[in-house]
Design goal:
By secondary structure, this protein is mainly α. It is built from 9 helices and no strands.
Length: 173
């Protein structure tokens, strides 16, 4: 529910601006949104610092060379923009357990952290297996007016809605 003093952006405005930015990025730079390679490269930086000889011999890091590129800066921009948006809207708060999770599964930080970690592992594994970030693929394909992008977005959201309903059905604990 939107409060009278809520300074958050309209989802329509945010969506339109995101669409404009991705069109400009594709048109001017020939790049589409995506972030999963950034996390792989960040792990590569860590491995280079801890075991440089092993990182140099790893085939994966030969293909995804640990470097600061446009995607890394894109992720930094996402984090900075999200922080600035949350602070300026007055919605910024640090919470280890979101209210929706707490009402359904309790306030246990370990359980929430474990489930979030496992979900992140599955998401990253699937994204790397597919060779693309799901949201990056969807946005890139939609910008090109590809039917596969529209179909993917429909299935992606349908799957999310179904899973959220299964996970959060039954209301409060």
């Amino acid at each position: 529910m939107k409060m009278p003093d809520d300074k958050s952006w309209s989802p329509y405005t945010a969506g339109a601006l995101t669409g404009l930015v991705i069109i400009l990025a594709a048109w001017l730079a020939g790049q589409y949104f995506g972030t999963t390679s950034t996390f792989v490269r960040a792990v590569g930086f860590i491995e280079q610092a801890l075991t440089p000889e092993r990182a140099a011999e790893t085939d994966y890091f030969k293909r995804f060379i640990p470097k600061v590129d446009w995607q890394m800066m894109f992720v930094v921009g996402i984090l900075a923009g999200s922080f600035i948006s949350a602070v300026t809207s007055g919605s910024f708060r640090i919470s280890a357990v979101p209210d929706m999770w707490k009402s359904r599964f309790g306030a246990g930080k370990f359980k929430r952290g474990l489930v979030a970690f496992i979900g992140g592992v599955f998401l990253m594994f699937g994204a790397r297996l597919a060779g693309s970030c799901p949201s990056g693929y969807a946005l890139g394909a939609l910008v090109q007016l590809a039917v596969s992008g529209l179909l993917f977005v429909f299935c992606f959201f349908a799957g999310g809605i179904i899973f959220a309903n299964i996970l959060y059905r039954g209301g409060n604990k």
